Amino acid sequence: MNSLTTRRDFLRLAGLGGGVVFASALQGGALRGSIFDDFHFVQLSDTHWGYEGPANADPRGTLPKAVEAVNDLDESPDFVVFTGDLTHTVDDPVKRRDRMKQFRDVVGKLRAKSVHFMPGEHDASLDRGEAFQELFGATHGTFDHKGVHFVVLDNVSDPSARVGETQIAWLKSDLAGRSATAPIVVLTHRPLFDLAPEWDWSTRDGSDVLAVLSPFRNVTVFYGHIHQEHHMMTGQIAHHSARSLMFALPAPHSASKRAPILWNPGAPYAGLGFREVEAYPSAATYRLDEMPVTAAAARARAALEEMVG
Predict the structure, then answer these.
(1) What phi and psi, each to the nearest 5 degrees, are found at residue 185?
(2) Class of the 3-251+261-308 domain?
(3) Would you tell me which of 106, 137, 260, 282 could form a disulfide with 34, CB atoms 3.0–4.6 Å apart?
């Protein structure tokens, strides 16, 4: 059944459930006559397993609670993606691998058909992704799902925050011959545009990546790194960042420095969460629904939706 026909979808499209629908392009969005099926996935980001500090009073409990919340969703996602910074940086390579193994054990409880991982700079910049590749596989690649082509880009393994000429050439080759209206989703960690370069919120050769993507009219980028929801258009390319599951960061240019927002005991997990994405490939649109950390909070919101209905 087309997911637009469900009552939950109607509420979210009406603005009652927190969801927002984004077109993936400003022009030529619809793929009329396509047989692409709608689907649903979950994005989690910046879990920073191993972090200890005043920005989270529950550092070893937040991720397990989020896993429980994902498992408690009323619709099981087709897949789950983690857009980087799985672990908090540590110099000791043994501890780095231990943290990755602990993270893997926690998220191994996700009841999802498949889970896709990509590194953040906390995971990969100190060893150019060596430990990550040992435990999770390649740092970049592609996969296809129900008519949408997903591209995973690595803009963190190079400590200079570059994608690099080799990977950009690979991207050109991967996209060669695809229709200009093909639905393409790019998953990466850092923003590909200059959001706040002074805070390391950019990719130094991101403009070269966007130049490769620019001929395609239905490109959407999902990323992490900035620990908050943010939406941006560069030409006809849509960019959506996700909240963190460990600590929030200030809005771009809103503070003198980039520092974690302190934990609020009166509002635990404030500013943290994950994202549900409902994909409608035939219309080239994505509905984004920002979800709280805990399953109880998600159920409370669902109950409120029922009351509204």
Answers:
(1) -120, 130
(2) alpha beta
(3) 282
Please report the beta strands in the chain, taking only residues with DSSP state E, as ranges in sequence order: 19-23, 39-44, 79-83, 115-118, 141-145, 148-152, 184-187, 219-223, 230-234, 237-241, 274-280, 285-291
Q: Which residues make beta-bridge pairs with 21?
A: 287
Predicted pLDDT at 26: 39
Tally the residues of the chain. Answer: 309
Model pLDDT for residues 25-56, shown as the tens digit of each residue? 534 444 544 457 899 999 999 999 999 999 99
Structure tokens at 109: 């409880």
Among candidate residues 59, 138, 94, 74, the one with its CA nearest the CA of residue 298: 74
Check pLDDT > 70 for residue 17: no
**Per-residue pLDDT tens for 219-255?**
999 999 999 999 999 999 999 999 999 999 999 999 9
What is the residue extent of each domain of the chain?
3-251+261-308
Burial of residue 36 (number of CB atoms within 10 Å: 0-12, 13-18, 19+) = middle
* CB 40, CB 278: distance < 8 Å: yes
Q: Which residue has the higher pLDDT, 31 or 151?
A: 151
pTM (2 decimals)? 0.89
Rounded to whole angstroms, the Cα distance separating 224 from 244 reads 8
Q: How far apart are alpha carbons 75 and 179 in whole angstroms?
A: 31
Give the torsion through C-alpha atoms of 166, 172, 175, 180, to 10 deg: 150
What's the CA gap between 27 and 182, in Å, rounded?
13
Strand order through the sheet with 79-83: 19-23, 285-291, 274-280, 39-44, 79-83, 115-118
